[in-house]
């Protein structure tokens, strides 16, 4: 046992750890949504371990029900963490063993129900901590005896029920309860007691003692043993004789039940001090007139008047007018149920002097109620019941001699014929039950005299049509039940006169439409209308609103229309129902909802849509936008696949949301957050994907302290039922947003700072590198590298088109003519047509021994010229080849050249020439010197000069 308890303790620790990190949800229990976390139900779970059921419950629990589970053991301290528990049910389980300290720390417990289990033995200390216990039920177990002192500390116990066990020792039971000063009710029915012999005394507070269905053959008790008992049930102890009561003090008994015993009641009065009006004569064998007459004589001698006379289950077949003639006045009821009466003869055996107010003839063999005569009135009778007979017909004037009846029960018979004057004379009738019969019609004068009728039940008959004027005189009727009939329609004035009707039940009929009579009959009195299970269907949206006159209607049931549901909800269908609180639309296979279907239901608090739709439900945006007072929405098995704000976002007062068996793959957490008053969410059997799409939802369900998510820990992942939704791995779904934002911001700032610098300093270097890289792999590039020493041209002339006139008029004639013999490459003349410009430039630079750049202000502004000088300077600096010559056509200051870092670097390293200005004193000689120096530079080899030199005409006279 210690190892077993250790296992339970380990399990409880694990579950406790789960609860620490989890939100408002429980493994095997559901909190009552209206109890603020104090009432819990743990029903129909498959858990055998009581710790797994209760360990995750909060300490605030006051009411707890654990029922219909395979639990077989309650270990010690199972409820120690629930110190304020007051109501505990552990019934209808497989309970066999209860630890001696199972209920330790439950000092506030008042109600404990352990019925319908398999407990065969209890420890002496099992109830030791239950100092405030007032009610204890051990019904239907296998207890054979009680340990001595088991109730020693439960001094507040008021009711103790131990029926349906195997108890045999009555003395031990008495000894266990003898010290209980507050015990009032002790139920020991259905046990194996054979005698009431005892060694102790029953507590003086005990007033109700049930000992029915035991094996008592004697009482065997002291004369004063039952001196304080007021209700004593000894029925169905077949061997109990009359002599057992000899000398026993029964003077305080107010009700004694002796059905199916061997006690002769007449003799009982001779040997005991029992009051005659305290004995229930049901099942005592008084079945003929002589016995009943003798009883009446005895009763009249002993007590006059008496309150009730019960003669049920005596086999009485016939009553005569003189049967009760000698009886004393009976001011309460006469019960003749469960006999064999075939006729009541208009109740002529009830003489007026008897003053009976209630007469019960249920469960007899009556087959008809004949016509009666008004002269034989029974003025005091107010309640009459003929239920559970075989009555086929009720003739006219059947109750004319009982004019003061207020309650008449004729239900559960076989009445097929009900005379239209059968109820004549019953002007005081308030309640009439004709349900569960075979009635097919009601005529317009059936209720002619029943103007005070308030409740009329005609359920489960075969009525097909309500004729004109049927209820015309029932202006005080508040409840009319016509459910379970075959009604197809009402005649135009069939409901006329029901001006006070508040509750109207028409469920289970064959109505094809909602009758127009609803518009003008009820005058805003109707509060409940039940149309469940009819044949109402709307195939199009052109329907006049049928409820416009029912402004006070509170409950409307339209669920389960046969055979294929309502079809559609037309626009403005609920117009006029401004007071409606509860609406039922379940099992209707609706194909669509009009977007304004619920717009008039501004006071609706409960809406049931369970199984209302076909396939996947398409709930229009805003369909619930007017339901701002809705507190409970039941939408199970509707086919909802999109939990969106457009549909659910306006339900700001919603407390309970049931979405069991829908098809959402995800739920928007923002929508749930907008439901500020939500306290109960049922998403069982919803295939929520265990992916990053639901990572926020998982976090919400685990950390929300206000919303109970029903059985969250049992919610499986669709892809693997072994993985649960509440703890699937979401690590890959989250990053450190702070760190991410910091580094992202730093990179952006760095790039914004560095980009302008790189643009100014490296733009052309990068662009040139790109072009070189692209050309590197071309066959032309490789060919040029191989044939570099065998150049096609002596010089490639790089110039801007604005300087073309100088090039053609001066440069070309002086280098290609005048005996110079240089071969020049000019872009407008020598570039290959159809080829990329970049490829032509690269080819020209590497197919020429020199590159002559004709520099001017226009040259500096040209991108192509800049690329050309970059390519040439690459050969100059990177390949160490003297291939670049600079010719300045005009003076350019160093400030203007400051942006051209590469060109200034060339000017510092390499010879450059300045075209003489026209203002020179000897321009001709200066130009001759210029051409001579340029020719000499072009003929020079490719060895790079280490020291820069330049030729510039600063003083033309010196040339």
Automatic annotation (TrEMBL):
<dbReference type="Pfam" id="PF13855">
    <property type="entry name" value="LRR_8"/>
</dbReference>
<dbReference type="Pfam" id="PF23598">
    <property type="entry name" value="LRR_14"/>
</dbReference>
<keyword id="KW-1133">Transmembrane helix</keyword>
<dbReference type="InterPro" id="IPR000157">
    <property type="entry name" value="TIR_dom"/>
</dbReference>
<keyword id="KW-0677">Repeat</keyword>
<dbReference type="InterPro" id="IPR003591">
    <property type="entry name" value="Leu-rich_rpt_typical-subtyp"/>
</dbReference>
<keyword id="KW-0399">Innate immunity</keyword>
<feature type="signal peptide">
    <location>
        <begin position="1"/>
        <end position="23"/>
    </location>
</feature>
<keyword id="KW-0675">Receptor</keyword>
<dbReference type="GO" id="GO:0005886">
    <property type="term" value="C:plasma membrane"/>
</dbReference>
<keyword id="KW-0391">Immunity</keyword>
<dbReference type="GO" id="GO:0006954">
    <property type="term" value="P:inflammatory response"/>
</dbReference>
<comment type="similarity">
    <text>Belongs to the Toll-like receptor family.</text>
</comment>
<feature type="domain" description="TIR">
    <location>
        <begin position="791"/>
        <end position="938"/>
    </location>
</feature>
<dbReference type="Pfam" id="PF01582">
    <property type="entry name" value="TIR"/>
</dbReference>
<dbReference type="GO" id="GO:0038023">
    <property type="term" value="F:signaling receptor activity"/>
</dbReference>
<protein>
    <submittedName>
        <fullName>Toll-like receptor 13</fullName>
    </submittedName>
</protein>
<dbReference type="InterPro" id="IPR055414">
    <property type="entry name" value="LRR_R13L4/SHOC2-like"/>
</dbReference>
<keyword id="KW-0812">Transmembrane</keyword>
<keyword id="KW-0472">Membrane</keyword>
<feature type="transmembrane region" description="Helical">
    <location>
        <begin position="740"/>
        <end position="764"/>
    </location>
</feature>
<dbReference type="InterPro" id="IPR001611">
    <property type="entry name" value="Leu-rich_rpt"/>
</dbReference>
<keyword id="KW-0732">Signal</keyword>
<keyword id="KW-0395">Inflammatory response</keyword>
<dbReference type="GO" id="GO:0002224">
    <property type="term" value="P:toll-like receptor signaling pathway"/>
</dbReference>
<dbReference type="GO" id="GO:0045087">
    <property type="term" value="P:innate immune response"/>
</dbReference>
<keyword id="KW-0433">Leucine-rich repeat</keyword>
<keyword id="KW-0325">Glycoprotein</keyword>
């Amino acid at each position: 046992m210690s190892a077993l308890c250790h296992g339970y303790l380990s399990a409880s620790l694990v579950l406790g750890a789960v609860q620490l990190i989890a939100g408002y949800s429980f493994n095997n229990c559901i909190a009552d949504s209206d109890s603020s976390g104090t009432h819990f139900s743990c029903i129909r779970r498959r858990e055998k371990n009581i710790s797994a059921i209760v360990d995750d419950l909060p300490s605030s629990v006051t009411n707890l029900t654990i029922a219909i589970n395979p639990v077989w053991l309650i270990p010690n301290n199972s409820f120690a963490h629930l110190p304020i528990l007051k109501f505990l049910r552990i019934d209808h389980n497989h309970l066999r063993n209860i630890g001696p300290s199972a209920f330790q720390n439950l000092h506030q417990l008042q109600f404990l129900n352990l019925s319908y289990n398999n407990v065969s033995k209890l420890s002496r200390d099992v109830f030791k901590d239950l100092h405030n216990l007032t009610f204890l039920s051990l019904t239907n177990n296998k207890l054979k005896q009680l340990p001595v002192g088991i109730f020693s500390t439960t001094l507040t116990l008021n009711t103790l029920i131990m029926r349906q066990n195997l108890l045999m020792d009555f003395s031990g039971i008495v000894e266990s309860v003898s010290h209980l000063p507050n015990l009032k009710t002790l139920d020991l029915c259905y046990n194996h007691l054979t005698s009431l012999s005892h060694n102790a005394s029953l507590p003086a507070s005990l007033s109700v003692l049930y000992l029915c269905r035991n094996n008592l053959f004697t009482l065997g008790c002291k004369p004063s043993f039952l001196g304080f008992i007021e209700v004593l049930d000894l029925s169905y102890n077949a061997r109990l004789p009359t002599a057992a009561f000899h000398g026993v003090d029964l003077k305080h008994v107010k009700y004694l039940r002796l059905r199916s015993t061997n006690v002769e009641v007449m003799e009982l009065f001779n040997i005991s001090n029992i009051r005659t009006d305290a004995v229930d004569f049901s099942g005592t064998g008084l079945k003929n007139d002589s016995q009943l007459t003798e009883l009446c004589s005895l009763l009249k001698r002993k007590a006059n008047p008496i309150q009730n006379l019960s003669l049920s289950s005596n086999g009485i077949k016939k009553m005569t007018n003189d049967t009760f003639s000698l009886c004393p006045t009976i001011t309460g009821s006469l019960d003749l149920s469960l006999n064999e009466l075939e006729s009541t003869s208009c109740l002529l055996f009830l003489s007026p002097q008897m003053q009976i107010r209630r007469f019960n003839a249920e469960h007899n063999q009556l087959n008809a109620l004949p016509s009666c005569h008004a002269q034989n009135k029974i003025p005091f009778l107010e309640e009459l019941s003929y239920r559970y007979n075989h009555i086929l017909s009720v003739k006219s004037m059947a109750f004319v001699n009982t004019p003061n009846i207020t309650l008449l029960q004729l239900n559960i018979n076989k009445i097929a014929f009900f005379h239209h004057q059968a109820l004549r004379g019953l002007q005081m009738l308030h309640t009439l039950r004709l349900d569960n019969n075979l009635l097919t019609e009601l005529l317009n004068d059936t209720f002619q005299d029943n103007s005070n009728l308030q409740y009329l039940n005609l359920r489960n008959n075969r009525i097909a049509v309500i004729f004109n004027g049927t209820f015309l005189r029932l202006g005080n009727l508040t409840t009319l039940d016509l459910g379970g009939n075959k009604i197809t329609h009402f005649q135009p004035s069939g409901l006329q006169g029901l001006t006070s009707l508040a509750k109207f039940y028409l469920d289970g009929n064959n109505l094809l439409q909602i009758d127009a009579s609803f518009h003008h009959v009820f005058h805003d009195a109707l509060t409940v209308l039940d149309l469940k299970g009819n044949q109402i269907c709307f195939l199009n949206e052109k329907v006049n609103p049928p409820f416009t006159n029912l402004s006070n209607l509170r409950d409307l049931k339209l669920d389960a229309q046969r055979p294929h549901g309502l079809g559609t909800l037309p626009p403005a269908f609920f117009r006029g129902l401004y007071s409606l609180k509860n609406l039922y639309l379940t099992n209707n296979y609706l194909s669509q909802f009009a977007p304004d279907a619920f717009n008039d239901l501004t006071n609706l608090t409960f809406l049931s849509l369970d199984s209302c739709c076909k396939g996947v439900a398409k709930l229009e945006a805003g369909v619930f936008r007017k339901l701002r007072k809705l507190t409970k929405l039941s939408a199970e098995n509707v086919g909802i696949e999109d939990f969106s704000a457009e549909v659910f976002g306006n339900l700001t007062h919603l407390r309970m949301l049931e979405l069991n068996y829908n098809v959402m793959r995800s739920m928007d957490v923002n929508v749930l957050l907008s439901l500020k008053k939500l306290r109960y969410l049922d998403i069982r059997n919803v295939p929520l994907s265990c992916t990053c799409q639901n990572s926020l939802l998982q976090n919400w369900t685990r950390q929300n302290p206000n919303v109970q998510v029903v059985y969250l820990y049992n919610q499986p992942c669709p892809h693997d039922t072994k993985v649960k939704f509440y703890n699937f791995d979401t690590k890959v779904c989250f990053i450190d947003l702070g760190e991410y934002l910091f580094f992202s911001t730093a990179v952006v700032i760095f790039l914004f700072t560095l980009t302008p610098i790189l643009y100014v300093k490296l733009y052309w270097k990068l662009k040139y590198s790109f072009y070189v890289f692209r050309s590197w792999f071309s066959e032309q590039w490789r060919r040029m590298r191989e044939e570099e020493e065998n150049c096609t041209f002596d010089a490639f002339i790089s110039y801007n088109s604005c300087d073309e006139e100088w090039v053609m008029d001066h440069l070309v004639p002086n280098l290609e003519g005048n005996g110079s013999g240089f071969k020049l490459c000019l872009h407008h003349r020598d570039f290959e047509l159809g080829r990329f410009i970049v490829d032509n430039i690269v080819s020209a630079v590497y197919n020429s021994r020199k590159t002559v750049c004709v520099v001017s202000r226009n040259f500096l502004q040209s991108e192509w010229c800049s690329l050309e000088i970059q390519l040439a300077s690459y050969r100059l600096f990177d390949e160490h080849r003297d291939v670049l010559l600079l010719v300045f056509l005009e003076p350019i200051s160093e400030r203007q050249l400051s942006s051209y870092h590469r060109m200034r670097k060339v000017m510092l390293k390499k010879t450059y020439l300045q075209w003489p200005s026209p203002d020179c004193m000897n321009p001709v000689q200066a130009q001759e010197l210029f051409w001579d120096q340029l020719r000499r530079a072009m003929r020079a080899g490719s060895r790079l000069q280490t020291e820069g030199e330049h030729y510039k005409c600063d003083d033309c006279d010196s040339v």
